[in-house]
Design goal:
18% strand; Rossmann fold; 16 helices; 405 residues
């Protein structure tokens, strides 16, 4: 399929290019010293990703340790309540550790092991990436430092406990807004000091090249599985595919399976409390081109052109930019990016729980809310949503802040 002069038959061979760009987005805006480190990671990745030994080991881990493939569930009661459109979810909440994050963490730590690193470093917001990396580090026997903002530590206490039980060192980040952006700042600073012995296992499809490409490739298992499963279940492709977008790892993994198909694709950003700067984290919807954390993308900026303060009820979505590939697909128009606010999200959180017996992560509830809204406008057809994680981590916070509905 050719869309706006981009041939999606060969898309993954050409994007990113050799310098890590998706069109004008991406790259590696780091010091010369770190450019050398990035080049070493890139070379190691392209060595092992073509190795039958590595591929077979990763497949074994996914099957025997992660519990893949994760299933697709038809939301029959919810679909009937909304009308004629049939809703389905790809169940990444059933992936080991409760979210999609382990898909790339096992790959990244396997790469670190191959490179002879002794430690892995990461940031986390909702805690799912931190738990996944701590799990992978424990599995392979590496040290693990996880940087997490004070605000998110308070909101995500269960995941903080899990990381510590798994042996990770959780480093509290107190400066600035003390959320995901600051956690990335701190983790990146630590990596610049320790890159000879450690690898920064970034938590999404962002950062300097080759991380947006690597995380996408590791997460593409979600979309590849989902496409095959949905076709087997229904005999056809879904009419629409929906996933939430913060940095964008679950969505990019999901979208990867359908970019070359005649399917509408929707990325859902957090509108939070409203459109005022500081009340949301919808960078692709309201942002402009800018560089942060080593890559060029679309970002929310303050009056000085610096990363703006952001907010979302979902700790994993409160980031002032999105991955460069999302920015590229946004400009192409291949993916339609839209927003869902906090109230719609919490309503979807409870609705899915009560009608289908599935408690979603707040991040995932953004996708569910949008899928429900989309179903009301379509009249007929099917919508496949990525349920990127389970909501165990969010229950106490939701009940405290929104009450038991």
């Amino acid at each position: 399929m050719i869309f706006n002069n981009v041939d999606f038959d060969t898309y993954f061979k050409h994007y990113p290019d050799a310098n890590g760009y998706f069109g004008k987005y991406g790259g590696a805006y780091v010091s010369d010293e770190l450019k050398t480190a990035m080049a070493e990671i890139n070379e190691a990745y392209f060595t092992i990703c073509k190795s039958a030994k590595f591929i077979n080991e990763l497949r074994r881990i996914r099957r025997d340790f992660q519990g893949r493939p994760t299933p697709i569930t038809h939301l029959e009661r919810l679909s009937n309540a909304l009308g004629n459109v049939q809703l389905y979810v790809k169940r990444e909440d059933l992936n080991h550790t409760g979210a999609h994050k382990l898909n790339h963490c096992m790959g990244e730590v396997l790469l670190a092991k191959f490179m002879g690193k002794k430690k892995v470093i990461a940031e986390t917001g909702a805690g799912q990436h931190g738990v996944a990396l701590a799990t992978a580090a424990a599995y392979f026997g590496l040290e693990c430092d996880i940087y997490m903002g004070t605000v998110d530590i308070a909101k995500q206490a269960p995941n903080v406990a899990r990381m510590k039980i798994l042996g990770a060192n959780v480093v509290e980040v107190t400066h600035g807004l003390a959320t995901l952006k600051e956690a990335v700042d701190a983790a990146f600073d630590a990596y610049t000091r320790e890159y000879k012995d450690a690898i920064y296992c970034i938590g999404s499809v962002l950062g300097p090249h080759p991380f947006p490409m690597m995380v996408r490739d590791f997460q593409s298992v979600v979309g590849i599985e989902a496409r095959a499963q949905f076709t087997e279940m229904t005999g056809e492709l879904p009419d629409a595919v929906v996933a939430c977008v913060g940095g964008g790892s679950n969505s990019m993994g999901m979208f990867a399976g359908f970019l070359n198909d005649p399917v509408d694709i929707y990325g859902v950003e957090p509108l939070g409390r409203g459109t005022a700067l500081g009340d949301h984290a919808a960078s692709l919807t309201y942002g402009t081109e800018g560089i942060m954390h080593g890559f060029n993308s679309i970002m929310l900026k303050d009056e000085n052109g610096d990363p703006a303060p952001v907010y979302s009820v979902a700790s994993g979505l409160d980031y002032p930019s999105s991955g460069p590939e999302h920015a590229f697909l946004h400009d192409l128009g291949r993916v339609k990016y839209d927003v869902i606010n906090d109230e719609e999200t919490i309503d979807a959180f409870y609705t899915l729980s009560r009608m289908e017996g599935i408690i979603p992560a707040i991040e995932s509830a953004h996708a569910v809310a949008y899928g429900m809204k989309l179903a009301k406008t379509m009249g007929r057809g099917s919508v496949l949503m990525c349920l990127s994680g389970r909501g165990d981590k969010d229950m106490d916070y939701v009940i405290k802040e929104y009450g038991m509905r």
